[in-house]
Amino acid sequence: MNNLMQKLVEAKTYIVSQTDEKNADIGLVLGSGLGELAERVDERIVIPYAAIPHFPVSTVAGHKSCLVIGTLEGKRVVCMQGRFHFYEGYSMDQIVFPIQVMHMLGAQNLILTNAAGCVNTAWIAGDLMIITDHIKLIAESPMRGTNVDELGERFFDMSCTYDKALQQLALDCGKTLGIQLRQGVYQYFTGPQYETPAEVRLARMCGADAVGMSTVPEAIAASHMHMHTLGISSLTNMAAGILDTPLNHKDVLEASEKGKAHFAVLIQNIVQRMNAA
Q1: Active site includes 203?
Q2: Structure pTM?
């Protein structure tokens, strides 16, 4: 057995031993400010990352380090309260390991959320953006190394990384709830430093509407496994150079806190209306 597959089986086996749950409908990665959505999961079982074989542990303020499994809006969900980032010192394959575990648990649908910097000058901080595509100019890939055929093929398509049907579902839910949703491109930077004004100008020239330090490696791994992925960004601040105000993580967390209520309601509504398979 491939070394990665062995690790995935060990992680899955431990999780199942704690939950008796062999199948999940939806995987949820809860970004900055959205971790409390996991508290709305019914019959939830909380497993610290540190207890799961081969799982990293989140080190970022605002990110808990727990896997929450249970029922949300009638669907079986597995939620990450806090994710892992390249800037924390983790390798790309470590970053996406939990996504692969979600797949092993049966999840075919994946919702990725994050806090991001707004690049589109026609929008404002506080907007929510459905990710239609992404830009990754970073050479490192989570799929580098020996391919695991049990997960996906060596060379795989990325033209539909973010599922169009799920994007439309999110738009419909936003309309029902009276929540305006933007649609745009997310550009990945590794951090931990925020982007420079020149980098933000470059991102805009490349066609990006938002910038951030997560999500893209996870979406790549999900594409490799043919998962149906929806990405939504909370645009917590205008990116560097657009305003004269310096950026700091405290402000990002505060902005996430203010916007989390309607963001959480949106995610719940999407989960409710999402097909289980």
Answers
A1: no
A2: 0.93
Which conformational region is residue 247 in: left (phi greater than 0), alpha (psi within -120 to 50 degrees), or beta?
beta
Distance CA 79, CA 47 (A): 10
From 58, 88, 143, 233, the catalytic residue: 88
Task: Determine which one of 36, 87, 91, 147 is catalytic.
Answer: 87
Which alpha helices (H) appear in the chain, and where do they start and end?
3-19, 92-104, 164-177, 197-206, 216-224, 249-273
Question: Dihedrals φ, ψ of 239, to 5°?
Answer: -65, 165
How would residue 261 be classed by pLDDT, with cut points 50, 70 and 90? confident
User: Active site residue: 237, 239, 256, 274, which one?
Assistant: 237
87 is catalytic: yes
Task: Specify whether 17 is catalytic.
Answer: no
> 228 catalytic, yes or no?
no
Task: Give CA–CA dist 26/276, Å, rounded.
Answer: 7
Query: Residue 8: its pLDDT value, please?
Result: 97
Tokens 């062995």 identify what position?
Answer: 6
Active site residue 237: yes
